[in-house]
Amino acid sequence: MSQKTSPRPLEVACPQCHKKVAWVEENLYRPFCSKRCKLLDLGAWADESHRIAGETAMDETSIDEMILQAERDFSGSNS
User: Fold this and answer.
1) Which residue among 20, 39, 68, 74 sits deepest, i.e. has the most Cβ atoms within 10 Å of its Cβ?
2) How far apart are alpha carbons 11 and 22 in whole angstroms?
3) How many structural domains is the chain composed of?
4) What SUPFAM superfamilies is this protein classified in (predicted)?
5) 38 marked as binding residue
6) Per the domain annotation, does 73 fall within a domain?
């Protein structure tokens, strides 16, 4: 008679402290190892230590200047 063994759960590294963590439903903080690591990561996003790569967004002044320039260009070409 063969005995079935459940497969080992996937292990991932906690994004904050790099400790190995089992990727199981019981881990409420996955992919983090603890509430502390989860909150530290959230804080890093909040203070912009973590960012998504790419160009920075334009501020409102730059956008307003672009709109005014486009309106001038448009009205100048329709005269």
Assistant:
1) 39
2) 4
3) 1
4) Glucocorticoid receptor-like (DNA-binding domain)
5) no
6) no
CA 31 to chain centre: 13
Q: Is residue 23 part of a domain?
A: yes
Give tens-digit pLDDT for 17-74.
999 999 999 999 999 999 999 999 999 999 988 888 887 777 778 888 889 999 998 8
> Looking at the domain assignment, is residue 70 inside a domain?
no
- Give me the domain span that covers residue 13: 7-51
Residue 33 marked in a binding site: yes
pLDDT value of position 41: 96
22: β partners: 11
Determine if residue 24 is labeled as part of a ligand binding site: no
